[in-house]
Amino acid sequence: MGSKRNGNACGPLLLAAFVASAVLAGPGAASASAAPVHCGDKIKTDTKLTSNLDNCPSNGVVIAADHVTLDLNGHRIDGNGKMTGHCPNICDVGIVDAHRNGVTVKGGTVRQFGLGTLAFKTRHLRMHRLTARHNRFSGVVIVASTRAVLDEVVTTLDGLNTDQSGMAAFDTDHLLLRDSTLKANGDIGLYDENLNDSRLVGNTFSRNHEAGILLNGDGNLVAHNRFLHNGDGVGMGGDDNVLRRNLVTHSTGLGFGAQGGKHNVVAHNRVRDAEIGITVASYGAVADTLVRGNYIRASAQDGLRVRAVRKSLKRTRVRRNHVFGSGADGIDVGSASTTLIGNRSNGNSDLGIEAVRGVTDGGGNSARGNGDPRECTHVSCG
Fold first, then answer.
1. pLDDT(345) > 80
2. What is the per-residue pLDDT across 49-63, written as a single tens digit (0 to 9) for each?
3. Long-range contact pairs involving 247-255 (C-beta distance under 8 Å, separation at least 24)
4. What's residue 19's pLDDT?
5. The domain 101-377: what is its CATH number?
6. How far apart are CA 135 and CA 335, in angstroms?
7. Is the pLDDT of residue 351 over 70?
8. What whole-number distance in Å separates Cα of residue 54 and Cα of residue 255?
9. Cα–Cα distance list, 92 to 55, 77, 161, 183, 185 (Å)
10. Mean pLDDT taken over the chain
């Protein structure tokens, strides 16, 4: 991944340490849930809150059976904002779902815990219309789980003093995150390690100062999302990922970055007012990246950049992108293993296409009205 992730490794490591200390002892013994529900209760049957749970000294609610629905019914589960000392089991979590199958959590707010929610070794978790806010670390954490569906979930103002993400996923697969909002969290909207074969669709990531998403897994689809006023929009590692039909505006860093992995696709996205619109940069080894059909406008530096940085960069294809109004080059290619086909790059402050000697000119590129009258180097431009 890119330099931002490498420069901020302490954040994810701190969260991972918290999760490990919480789950090593397992979920503990189950008992029947009480009515009404109190802080720390373990529920074994479908449960609907009838009032808020305020100032919980450790956990809020622990799911203690499979196929249980916890309906917050518009209420909140509220911690006391203080970290509990050493405990033998999981502590300081608003909602705990460990080793369970088919759990549903919906309809309320979890706030002021160490973690808002924790799912550990779960299957078929469903979160619906749940808000996590003002938690010390992340609002939603999913670990070693499969086939979770999260829709209309909000994480906001989580991890502000610990440099943490709104949502974090570790060693998890077949996650569906849709129609959700990850806003103004400590560093990243969604951070993951080994999130695989998952879909992130129709979400809004805004005002996360490091990035909307840092994606570190294989076979994921990121589509139809909005990335507004983040640091980077998406930083991507891993293999066989697709970033398609997303909107990025006003990023202080990158719109999209393919910074590690092979066979990744960045296609038909719109990027406006980023520092650099789209970059393919080999912080890890990068091969067979396709950048196709993107619309990039008003980048402060280059609109689209391809550069070898630390590792090898091979066989990048830059095809039919439209780049306008960049503060430097429209398309800047520093890797001779790149092929350029049918790109249009107009009205940029420097060159339309600046390419190094040895690139493959696939034809059909055009550049007009750029600051450098040559328009292009080492490719023909109509």
1. yes
2. 999 999 999 999 999
3. 247/271, 248/212, 248/272, 248/274, 249/273, 249/274, 250/274, 251/227, 251/275, 252/209, 253/4, 253/211, 254/2, 254/278, 254/279, 255/227, 255/296, 255/299
4. 59
5. 2.160.20.10
6. 44
7. yes
8. 40
9. 11, 12, 16, 22, 19
10. 92
